[in-house]
Write a structure and sequence with these properties.
With about 375 residues, this protein is of the alpha+beta class. About 25% of the residues lie in helices and about 35% in strands. The chain binds adenosine-5'-triphosphate and magnesium ion (MG). Magnesium ion binds next to helix 1.
Length: about 375
């Protein structure tokens, strides 16, 4: 097992495309770290540099204590699982699992031991004689994981390994990967563009955008304290509501957000550091932190749409020019086109600098 350390790692492709712009972070020994971000943000590039499939343009990459910038892939003690796994169709599960080990010259007993171990870990023990075409997509993907597992590598690299599976299978194989990680305790770096996969699987998550690391933290810390507007908008579904405006103290003593071309939004019993009063800010409020309310801190919004999804309802609102999404437990609500009183949960608001998008801690409860 080993830690993986990026020190100001940069990747510029031959065509001049800067895919990774100086990434510095460490994946701890035994940690399951998820790299997440939109398409093209550099996730696969980072992973492929660890695997040795892409050259590091600048900076230092370590696996364990060893600098691996110039170490060939086969000497890195890693195993990688790709989205498009290709099993050998004419080989049984056992043969597929054993193939790479035999190539590397492991003796028969050792191959047998590892194949058996991986098959048991992945629930494939009863399918060892099957051919891939006689298996489901999820089972085949487990064989693909097994081929990495038998290598007993120091680090597992997984690049969107579940994206070919349907939603239900994705969930079950994801659970298996988490269990496997707990059982093996091997360092894993897992790439996905799916925020739910990232949140549920990662012990920590690296959020990337346009080749730049945005934030690294535990899933809940990222959700509760996003470092900037990008992270705030990327994690959470429906996405965080973001309102731009100037914050004033109301006559009642609380804070009020005044958008440039919209209606005031009362923010409740908070006080703002004086340097931010009267300046333009971005205020973020997650859909679950808007609530139907008839108190005097409520504002009146118009219901534009109702989306009951079973265990909750997404309510699309409009307040002046501002669209908002509120998320509530099942209940009876006014109809589309009617008004509703809405209040924000003051303690759960997020504030960002309007120019840079950086999180600012500028409020205290009163
Ligand atoms: N071989 C290459 N040559 C030139 N540019 C490349 C190459 N591979 C990737 N890129 C570019 O580098 C950037 C990062 O690509 P990368 O594949 O790492 O993104 P990703 O985050 O894995 O995206 P996805 O979620 O779509 O897989 C993209 O702009 C991509 O077009
Ligand atoms: Mg990719």
């Amino acid at each position: 097992m080993a830690k993986v350390r990026f020190e100001d790692v940069r990747k510029v492709y031959d065509n001049g495309q800067v895919a990774v712009q100086g990434a510095s972070f460490e994946v701890a020994d035994g940690e399951l770290m998820v790299l997440v971000g939109p398409s093209g943000c550099g996730k696969s590039t980072l992973l492929r540099m660890v695997a040795g499939l892409e050259e590091v343009s600048a900076g230092t990459l370590r696996i364990g204590d060893r600098v691996v910038n110039d170490v060939p892939p086969k000497d890195r003690d890693i195993a990688m699982v790709f989205q498009n796994y290709a099993l050998y169709p004419h080989m049984t599960v056992a043969e597929n699992l054993a193939f790479g080990l035999k190539l590397r010259g492991h003796d028969k007993a050792e191959v047998q031991r590892r194949v058996q171990g991986a098959a048991e870990a992945l629930g494939l023990a009863s399918m060892l004689d099957k051919l891939p075409r006689a298996m489901s997509g999820g089972q085949r993907q487990r064989v693909a994981l097994g081929r990495a597992l038998v290598r007993e590598p120091a680090v597992f690299l997984l690049d969107e390994p579940l994206s070919n599976l349907d939603a239900k299978l994705r969930h079950s194989v994801r659970t298996e990967i988490a269990q496997l990680h707990r059982k093996l305790g091997t360092t894993m770096i897992y790439v996905t563009h799916d925020q739910v996969e990232a949140m549920t699987l990662g012990q920590r998550i690296v959020v990337l955008n346009e080749g730049v690391v945005q934030q690294i933290d535990t899933p809940m810390a990222l959700y509760d304290r996003p470092a900037n507007l990008f992270v705030a908008g990327f994690l959470g579904s429906p996405a965080m509501n973001v309102l731009r405006g100037v914050v004033h103290r109301s006559d009642g003593g609380g804070l009020v957000l005044r958008p440039a071309d919209g209606l005031d939004v009362p923010l409740g019993a908070l006080s703002l550091t004086s340097e931010w009063l009267g300046r333009e800010l971005m205020v973020g409020v997650r859909p679950e932190h808007l609530q139907p309310s008839s108190t005097d801190t409520a504002f009146n919004a118009v219901i534009e749409g109702l989306e009951p999804v079973g265990n909750e309802i997404f309510v699309n609102l409009r307040h002046g020019g501002q669209p908002l999404v509120m998320r509530v437990p099942p209940q009876s609500l006014p109809s589309v086109g009617e008004g509703i009183g809405v209040a924000v949960v003051s303690a759960a608001l997020h504030f960002f600098d309007a120019a840079s998008g950086t999180r600012i801690d500028c409020t205290t409860a009163t």
